Amino acid sequence: MTTTALPHSGATTPAPGRMRALVQERYGPPDVLSLTTLERPTPGRREVLVEVGAASVHPGDAFVMTGRPRLVRLAFGLHKPRRRTPGMDLAGVVRAVGADVTSVCVGDRVFGWTTTGALAEFATVRDDHLAPIPAGVSVDGAAAVPTSGMTALQALRDVARLQSGQTVLITGASGGVGSFAVQIAKALGGEVTGVCSGRNIEFVRQLGADQVIAYETTDVTRGSTRFDVILDSVEAQPLAEMRRILTPRGTLIPNSGRGGAWVGPLGRIARARLLSAVTRQRLRPFTSLGRRSDLLVLAEMLASGEITPFIDRRYALADAADALRQVATGHARGKVVVTP
Question: Which residues pair with 246 in a beta bridge?
Fold first, then answer.
C-alpha cells in the first residue's frame, strides 16, 4: 500500500487494477486523511463499479470523519471507521456491473449515493442508489445533488406537504441543502424568504427567493411576518423564537444536525416532539432517507431546469481534506465538489 501526504496533489497514476483513494484509520479532524493507492473494488451481485468523475461533500461527511457526535459510531464503527474511505455522493461512468444488475449498463453516466467510499477514483454502489445523469448536466453538477437535494425535497414535499401559495422561510438558504430548498420550494409554488449572510444575498435572489434577509443585520424572529413552513438548517435561534414566526398550524423543520458531543441533535429532537404533542403547530425534525424514486424526481427537475446545482469550489482528490474543512465551517455557498 502506497500513501501520499495530502498537501502533495501530484500523485502518480496507479497501475491497472489499482486506484487512488482517500483513507482514514481513525476518527478525527481532516488531518487524519491520507491519499493512498488501493486495490480497485469488485462489485457484488447487486452493485455497480463507478469510475468517479466527481464526488460532493457535505456536513454529514464531516460528522462521519470526526466520529462526532459519537452516536454516528454505532453505524460507522465504534473505535475507528469500519470502511476506511469517506464520501457518500458521487457521479461518474459505470465500468462494471454485478450479476443481478439490470437497471444500468456499462458506459452509463450515473449519479447517486453510497454509504461511504465516494472519495476515490472508483467506488462500488448499489444499483438502486443510482440514476442516469440527464443530458446536458455535467458530472460535477450531478454529484452535487443526491443527499442535499433529497433532504430538501423530502423536507418540503413530504414533511411540510408544501402547497402552492404558502409562505416558506429557509435559513441557511445559500448552503448545500438551502440552495436546493429555495429552488424546490419555488417549483412547488411556495413564496420563499431566504435567510443568509449579507455577501450571499444576490446569490439567494438568483436561486429564486422572493425575499432575502441578511442575518447580520436583521433578526427574522423579531419581524411581524408569519410563515406556513420553516426549514431551519441553521438552528441559531431557540425553538420558542422560531415558533413565534410560525402560523398557528404551520410546520417547523429543524435540520442542522448539530448538537452535543454524544447524541448530537437528539435532545432538540425530543423537545420538538414533545412540544408538537401539545400545540397545533407541527414541529417535525426528520432524517432524510436515500430513495431512488426521489433521485429520479431530482433527475427530472435537473433536466427541466427547475433545479440547478451551484458549486462553490472544486478540489482535487489529494486536496479533499480542505474540502471537508470548508463544509465543516457551515459557510459554503452551494456545494463543494471533489474531482478525482
Answer: 227
Q: Supply angle C-alpha 52, 324, 291, rounded to 5.
A: 55
Strand order in the sheet with 191-196: 211-214, 191-196, 167-171, 227-232, 246-254, 282-283
| Residue 4: all three cell numbers together | 501520499
User: pLDDT tens digit string along 109-165?
Assistant: 999 999 889 999 999 999 999 999 999 999 999 999 999 999 999 999 999 999 999
Q: Residue 264 pairs with which residues in a beta bridge?
A: 260
Contact by Cβ (8 Å): 124, 41: yes
Q: How many CB atoms lie within 10 A of CB 59?
A: 22
pTM of the model: 0.88
Nearest to 133, CA basis, from 164, 152, 109, 163 = 109
> Measuring CA to CA, how many Å separate 97 from each of 49, 125, 228, 304?
6, 10, 46, 29
Nearest by Cα to 34 from 1, 61, 67, 74: 1
pLDDT tier for residue 21 given thresholds of 50, 70 and 90: very high
Q: For residues 88 and 260, what is the distance between their CA atoms, to the nearest angstrom?
A: 23
- Amino acid at residue number 80: K
Contact 95, 49 (CB under 8 A): yes
Biggest CA–CA distance in the chain, Å, is 63
CA–CA separation, 332 vs 173, rounded Å?
Answer: 11
User: For the chain, which domains are there?
Assistant: 2-145+309-339 (3.90.180.10), 148-283 (3.40.50.720)
